[in-house]
Amino acid sequence: MQGNKKKENKKNRKSLPTGFIYHSDYLKHNAEQIHPENKERLSKLVEHLEKNGFLSKLKKVEPYIPSIKWLEKVHTPEYVRKIEEVCRNGGAMLDPDTPVGPESYQIALLAVGGVMAAVDAVMNKEVKNAFCALRPPGHHAEKDKAMGFCIFNNVAVASRYVQNKYRMKKVLIIDWDVHHGNGTQNIFWTDPSVFYVSVHQFPFYPGSGSENEVGEGEGNGFTFNLPMFAGSGDVEYVEAFENIIYPSAVKFDPDFVFISAGFDAHENDPLAQINLTEEGYKRMTEVVTRLADRCCDNRLVSVLEGGYNSHSLAFSVEEHLLALMNQKSK
Ligand SMILES: [Zn+2]
Hints:
Largest sheet: 8 strands, parallel
Strand order of the largest sheet: 2-1-5-10-9-6-7-8
CATH architecture: 3-Layer(aba) Sandwich
Shape: globular
Bound molecules: zinc ion
Number of strands: 10
């Protein structure tokens, strides 16, 4: 009878809505700056989803300001304090690409807390899976270093959170942002409990992400880089997802899946030279949802990273959401 019960639970989760995490405070980070990572990315996305009646199909999940102890599972306490201080003093350039203003510390905390709220909603069966529309992004942020528009590593902190709070032992992070997630790789480099898979343009910013980078010590084999040449598109990506990423991830057998979902590998993106379309993003999402269904009862949280053509970003996220909701395109 236990088998039947398990089946029943699974069916219940599948019928739950997809969660959507957003807060208007996310627009206040560097609101006045002329920068590729700007507030229009999110405001236009939300406007688009509102206009076509999408938001009403999703369950809104409220982000919160998390306890600093969760950030310190990933970042050094000195680093967290430094960001707080820099912002309190009016802001600065943290690296040549990463400006922060007076409100950025609180907003970066709210971004981390957005992913944690998504984890809570998935674990408490309020939603089947979730998408976090937030900024600043996170995957370039290392333990003690801001980089490439990223301040705190949202997905890395949430990975530690789901492991510690909900006893999910094995976490899979699939990072399809067009840039290699050096920060996430760096944080979990020696850790076999987090399987980090990145598919990205290479050679390209930030320079890391060759296939020879596989982790070290106990983490050897738990970092998996799939570099893509400039000019690659839907065919190469979908093939990699179906034939390489899916089987490796099934072998790892995760308890929880995150997507570091950058949409800057889109053909219209101004920052890179990969030619994905909305259809490509949908098909990649379908592979990941199938994987989460097979391995971990659909426990999946997708988190926005890059994506700098706001029009393509909005349309790509729409297809991504349709696949998360398991609905057909229009
Ligand atoms: Zn990127």
